[in-house]
Amino acid sequence: SDNLLILDFSSPLYKRLAYTSEIYLFLFQCTSNTLLSTVQEFNWKGVYDESFCVRIHNLTNKRISFTEKKLAGVIWRNLEKPRVNLKNPHTNIGFFNTTKGVFVGLFMFRIDKAHLSRKASQRPYPHPTSMHPSLARACINLTGVMHGKLLDPFCGSGGLLIEAGLMGYDTTGYDIDKDMLDKC
Predict the structure, then answer these.
(1) Contacts for 14 with CB less than 8 Å, ≥ 6 apart
(2) Kind plus residue range of the DSSP H or E element containing 91
(3) Helices 159-166 and 133-142, interaxial angle, to 10°?
(4) What SS3 state is found at 72?
């Protein structure tokens, strides 16, 4: 329910994710009661680079007792010559308030959502059963194969093949329905 997933992951596959919005490097976890003291004790010099901002993501409906300004103030006091940049920080620190506590991470990457413009309804020959681009990318990622050939024996109008081709795969598709192949 919190829409937060924490993984031990070091593969460049993260750039291909479809159902993910942003990726953060996990820094620490604590309770909301110990948040301020944990923030004060953390070594911010190890993650700070040139400028910073703090963003709170409240993934619960519960009211929170801390603000971005208050957390940024604690971090500010633990840095030498700190600089805040709210629009384009080099160090973006995310605080995720969840039902299981507060998770803190360093922003690393925002997932490109360009694939959403390739929905079946946006293609020259749309078909209502064509695979959604996000699902196609997720299925391709589930193979665990980084590159190579991809065969879709029931390609339909080509939703999976389009995404695989744009992800750098050598693609081949077959279908029993000639009309679907023409759309593909």
Answers:
(1) 20, 23, 109, 111
(2) strand 91-98
(3) 70
(4) helix
* Residue 31 pLDDT > 80: yes
Cα distances from 19 to residues 50, 133, 170, in angstroms, run 31, 10, 23
Mean of the per-residue pLDDT values for the chain?
87
Instruction: Give yes or no for a contact between 96 and 141, defined as CB atoms under 8 angstroms apart.
Output: no
What is the SS3 assignment for 35? helix
Question: What's the angle, vertex CA 110, arms to CA 92 and CA 31, rounded to 5?
Answer: 50
CA dihedral over 139, 141, 109, 170, signed as positive or negative: negative
Q: How far is it, in rounded angstroms, from Cα 82 to Cα 90? A: 12
CA distance 60 to 95: 12
pLDDT at 168 over 80: yes
Report the C-alpha gap between 184 and 125 in whole angstroms: 8
How many whole angstroms separate alpha carbon 160 and alpha carbon 130? 9
Helix (H) or strand (E) holding 36, with range, is helix 35-41
Q: Is 119 exposed, middle or buried, given 0-12, 13-18 or 19+ CB atoms closer than 10 A?
A: middle
Q: Are 103 and 29 in contact (CB under 8 A)?
A: yes
